[in-house]
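Hello,

I think I submitted the iron/sulfur cluster job twice by accident. Can you confirm which output corresponds to this input? Input:
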Amino acid sequence: MTNLKKTGLVFDIQSFSVHDGPGIRTLIFLKGCPLRCLWCANPEGQKLFPEVRYHVMKCVGCLACAEVCPHGAITLFSEACREGKKQPKICIDREKCAKCLGLECVAACPNGALQLTGKLMTVEEVVKAVKRDLPFYRGKGGVTLSGGDPVYQPKFAIELLQACKEEYVNTAIESAMFAKREKIEKFLPVTDLFLTDIKHMNSKKHKELTGVPNELILKNIALTARYKPVLVRVPIIPGSNDDDKNMAATAAFCLEYGITRINILPYHKLGVSKYEQLGMEYLQEEIETPDDDKMEHIKEIMEDMGVTCIIN
Ligand code: SF4
Ligand code: SF4
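Support: Only one job matched these inputs. Its output is below.
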């Protein structure tokens, strides 16, 4: 019996996605991820607690937020606390802020300059949102749990997937697969499709790029592919993982475990502004999006190896 009252930390729900599984899908973004990919486009999904996003352009410096903050985390801006390039009006001490559940500052701001990212929701509340999209699935679409990484909130994610199954909704998860084998195994009965990335085949390089080695990830992909469809995606990060040798090794690994389709995704900078809003540093400023020729070249390498390669 599904526990509809189980709660999890959700930071977004998006309808009408067509890139994250079959058909039209509802994406549920869960907070918390064990990786720290240098190019992460959803940095608001990394930490397993609610955070405040600060929109400099909307702030008038009235300090209403500072007055209500019970932890003294907000002060008038000084050069010593500058985050990023823009000239903010306030400084937010992210360490003091990290465990605040009150978030009084967000409600106090008259201009919407402070935004909460991460909200506790029950399985029931999320399923209610999913049910609104049911007519659009047309027997093909469904729900994809993303993040962050849904495997980082396993109990909530599994209850949610189970509840979707009870509504005959197709289920998918987007996971980095950096988790104990037993944890991944619990997802198998309630997940129709696993979407995962291979960021680098060399473990040392993988650790440099994401903060963790790749052995566990590759083992989990191999295990999962024995039981369920797995779609492997490769983010193409110029100068980091886009060399021919790594691309061929990725295709060879997938073929070995019966995965015959790989999606390649060109690096982009769509998430960069969020870093500044969250007081985080973006370390990939210099890297440019790979051009069409490069993407076609990688597709050719993959297809020569025998996989179907789609450029997303
Ligand atoms: S989230 Fe909490 S600690 Fe952080 S600034 Fe707002 S009220 Fe203060
Ligand atoms: S964030 Fe909002 S409440 Fe705080 S100083 Fe800026 S405008 Fe005022």
